[in-house]
Amino acid sequence: MNNNQDDNYRFYLKNKDENLLFVAPHLGINSIDSTVEEVTKSVDFKVEQLRNEFNQSESGSVSMRGQSEYKTTNEDPQIVKNRLREKYREALKRDEKLEAEAERSVNEPTSDMEEHQAELKKRHKNEIEAYQVVQQRILDSFKRDMDNLMLKFDAEFSRLRKVHSELLADIQLKQEEDSAVVSGTHQP
Questions:
Q1: For the residues 107-123, what does the mean pLDDT come to?
Q2: CA gap 188, 180 in Å, rounded
């Protein structure tokens, strides 16, 4: 690792809390998994409740059926048919109510889910702020490095301009000396 890479490595690890995302970016996945598990448990619990209610209503309707079968022997078949039709309609209505309640409970956010979502939003906001802090440090470091490079460039440019001027002066002086020698040799 060269010196510049070593500086960058130390730069990122100055503050463990702010740079946790660079060290272990996979930590955010656990929160999503836990959210899914909580929602699954909640839905499973509500489905189990609905099943229990349904089983209780079924056991009640079985006992009613048994009673109505004993009564049907003495009653008119048309009355029995109407009574059974009415019970069937009531069962359908109860079934529709249970389905609507189950769907509402699945679609309706619970307070636990809302709290967890708020926690995730807060954590996401904190992660963004940490990224912004690190980004600002990188930008500041880049600006310092560019300023240093520009100072070095300006110093080297000035040195080369001075060397160039000296060379031009030497060339001009040599040309003047050469022309003086040439003009001195051509005297009549």
A1: 82
A2: 15
